[in-house]
Amino acid sequence: MIDLYTARTPNGFKATVTLEELEIPYNVQAFNLSDMTQKEDWFLKINPNGRIPAIMVHR
Q: Which of 28, 38, 39, 49 is the most buried (most CB within 10 A)?
């Protein structure tokens, strides 16, 4: 399963469209970028750049 961390931005839409087109099941965690959630410690462990989109694959 894939967790997609994204926001309503062009790059966020690209990741969502790609997963949909490939018919890969995924869960969405949507951010409001003004809340700065992408800069919190838990997210920086997923993506040290603190940017979206980020994808985490669980096996």
A: 38
Query: In this predicted model, what pLDDT tens digit does every residue of 9-55 receive, in sequence order?
Result: 999 999 999 999 999 999 999 988 899 989 999 999 999 999 999 99
State residue 53's pLDDT score. Answer: 95
Alpha carbons within 13 angstroms on the beta-carbon side of residue 57 total 3
Q: Which domain holds residue 9?
A: 2-57
- CATH number of the domain encompassing residue 27: 3.40.30.10
Which runs of E-coded beta strand occur in the chain?
2-7, 26-31, 54-57
31 Cα distance to chain centroid: 8
Structure tokens at 36: 């700065």
